[in-house]
Amino acid sequence: MLGSMAFLAMVAHETDGGVALVREEVGDDFLGPGTVTIRVHFSSANYKDLLAITPGGGVVRDYPIIPGIDITGEVVESQDAQFAPGDQVVAHGYGIGVSQNGGFAELARVPAEWVVKLDGLTTREAAALGTAGFTAAMSVQALLDRGLTPGTGPVLVTGATGGVGTVAVDILAGQGFEVVASTGKAGAGELLSALGAKTIIGRLPEDPDAKPRPLGKARWAGAVDSVGGKSLAHVLSTIEYGGAAAVSGLTGGSGLPTTVLPFILRGVSLLGIDSVQFPIAARRELWARLGNELKPRHLSLLENYAPITEAESVLNAIRAGNHSGRTVLGVAGEF
Ligand SMILES: NC(=O)c1ccc[n+]([C@@H]2O[C@H](COP(=O)([O-])OP(=O)(O)OC[C@H]3O[C@@H](n4cnc5c(N)ncnc54)[C@H](OP(=O)(O)O)[C@@H]3O)[C@@H](O)[C@H]2O)c1
To answer: Which of 14, 143, 166, 203 has the fewest CB atoms below 10 angstroms from its CB?
Structure first.
């Protein structure tokens, strides 16, 4: 058993009308409940981490908390026979970084049932993927399970420069799909083409003020959508007969102003993607696929790096819409 210890962390505190992220030394009362203690190598910056440091963000109920929904690193102690010191692991989802202390700290402790041993990925690569990359993999896997193949037709990725979007483009192109990337960022074409997108289009619908049509010209066999809102309604109305959209996010809004027509006239499926409660056995299996046959080919292109002490400015770039790809937050040796 590790003795009592002090370690460095970025702690989110509620202040008068705000949330402050403060570098501080904490004690083992900041280790969450659990059986596996991890020396954190890397965390990463996700939209949900931004919400965790945003007043009224709706994901954290009790402060103070160490944010960081992604943890990658090395096991230093385990009371569970599945893990031993030295194991390289990733843990994300469940309560990590929202109801239990997360990855913005030198140490993290979580239940063994939340931990995945890495296969085919370094701890840095696993952090470059993180929750967003895993969600992209879940989305692609859902389309594959639904029977989509590269021969079925083009696949649309919305929010294409985002974390989910960039990894989805990279995985789909690697699997031989023709990828159409939808982005609101002028100048993102070079990155998206390098990741394997064949066509780059603007945000959808093309005319945001036009009255939504229940059905439009069918353009894609499938879609990976992390935007939601009017954009997703447009996507559903333009999917080909028998196609599917894997839906994970709400950066464009949580409403869905659609009709049943795409479902009942074109047999379109809406595939819900939730990485948070996704069961551990399937989670471990998909991480192994993500490190091997589904491994994105251009992680180094979509990855940025910042030390953990700069987490707040990276998250603010996400808030301002100035962020592309995935940012790994270096923890070990960076406090
Ligand atoms: N279901 C799950 O388990 C799960 C897991 C991870 C993430 N998510 C959700 O998925 C979404 C994306 O996460 P992420 O980590 O990829 O976030 P992100 O890195 O911030 O990317 C989101 C992308 O959405 C696009 N976007 C931003 N504002 C928009 C707007 N107003 N209208 C249309 N598009 C907009 C932007 O892409 P362009 O500039 O290229 O258009 C942006 O890069 C979030 O809502 C997140 O909460 C869900």
So the answer is: 14
